[in-house]
């Protein structure tokens, strides 16, 4: 009997070893992993350079506290500000905590309370981030929710205009919704959202937790559109699997986060930061990011070809190596079937297969994954089950 709360519908796979894009289970079965720990192990599993950086830090010290000058925090903050064009960083341990910090900062700096978010968004599981999330299923049984959140449909500018008022602290969104189904905001819509929010004295918060750290072929997804956010939140891939989150914001917000206003015991842990410094050093590099885009194009092209005769494939979605295959059937059974065949993939929402391979995936691994997906989607037995 398990001694864990059953919060996860866990797969029957017990990892014992993982390297690059491959994961080995206790029963000896080897899997090609196109989940990357849900967009976390962006350099693949246990990359040597990150391992070395972590080992080096373990020899020095693991934790002091945020009462000290932590050089690694300054180094990683510089990497994040250089790559984003923003100015200041607060470190947390997770994505939800980063979004909590963003929401607190928006409220305090504007003196307003309302946060507008999008339907089908996902921002986390804490009380503020659960309230921010535009999906009822995340909230069931946990009410009452934190007040002052309002939800509008992505790409509906009329609804956004109607929701914006003099009490709106921020509009907060993912450029591509990850958990909600790989749904992209239209360029014109997102630019208009930013214009209207700023004209209204409201901040723009972009949740880059799933889309950031190179996943879409740029350091951050907002850069494809040329948006000018006031705050971005990051986590997941920032330290290739070590727990770390961050917000990166404009210098004008500094006063609202004065000493004693916000904090975290573990936030900005030196071991996680050593992993982050090495990870960002590799990923925030133009030729690495160009390769991510090229690999994304290859994956997309091969999927388009291989799935052209599958009539229940509705469309391919996403950008770079964040890929959704939208089906007219439930996606879950196909994920299970792919796993049986040695390929790990995810769902996004109910009808989308989500592929999040490591950003340094090889052409051969892409070809192998596409072959398996094509086989699985063409199998009659699964089609009947779903
Ligand atoms: C877009 C987005 N925001 C926030 C979160 C929450 O991050 P965490 O699970 O690290 O709290 C996630 C996690 O899936 C996410 O995808």
UniProtKB/TrEMBL annotation:
Pathway: Amino-acid biosynthesis; L-arginine biosynthesis; N(2)-acetyl-L-ornithine from L-glutamate: step 4/4. Its EC number is 2.6.1.11. The modification N6-(pyridoxal phosphate)lysine is found at residue 236. Transmembrane segments: none annotated. Its cofactor is pyridoxal 5'-phosphate. It is an enzyme of class 2 (transferase). Keywords: Amino-acid biosynthesis, Aminotransferase, Arginine biosynthesis, Cytoplasm, Pyridoxal phosphate, Transferase. Belongs to the class-III pyridoxal-phosphate-dependent aminotransferase family. ArgD subfamily. Homodimer. HAMAP family: ArgD_aminotrans_3. This is Acetylornithine aminotransferase. The lineage of its organism: Bacteria, Bacillati, Bacillota, Bacilli, Bacillales.
